[in-house]
Amino acid sequence: MELYKKKCVPCRGDIPPFTREQIDEYLKYLTDWKVLINEKKAFYLSRVYKFSNFEKSLSFINKVSNITEEEGHHPDLKFGWGYAEVNIFTHAINGLSLSDFILASKIDMISV
């Protein structure tokens, strides 16, 4: 499934978050993403990308920021020398939705 070709849809909070079974179904279309649980006991997607220096990490973060603005879906980003961490979560439903997987797939496309 080519999730990166789909468009993120803003969540108004009127849908339930994905179940673990739904998460597992979509996770197989992503590369090296982990499903973690936050302090509110909700699932989120997380991936750490490795780079050879700070400039490449910053460049990647800038590319991610452009995609997230286009999609209207904004992850939590953390970066420094040689790494960038992306955490994706739909706040309106306190969990994961299809848009989270679409965004992760789009981010994977710029990391290759």
Instruction: Tell me the helix content.
Output: 25-40%
Number of helices: 3
Beta content comes to 15-25%
Order of helices and strands: HEEHEEH
What would you call the shape?
Answer: globular
Structural class: alpha+beta
- Based on DSSP secondary structure assignment, what is the total number of beta strands? 4
Please describe the biggest sheet, giving its number of strands, its sense, and whether it closes into a barrel: 4 strands, antiparallel
Descriptive key words:
single chain, 112 residues, alpha+beta, four-stranded antiparallel β-sheet, 3 helices, 4 strands, 21% strand, globular
Descriptive overview:
- The two termini are 18 Å apart.
- By secondary structure, this protein is of the alpha+beta class.
- It is globular, with a radius of gyration of 14 Å.
Question: Could you write a compact summary of the structure shown?
Answer:
This protein has 112 residues and is of the alpha+beta class.
Protein topology:
Layout lengths: L19 H8 L6 E4 L5 E8 L3 H18 L4 E5 L2 E6 L9 H14 L1
Antiparallel strand pairs: 1-2, 2-4, 3-4
Helix pairs in contact: 2-3
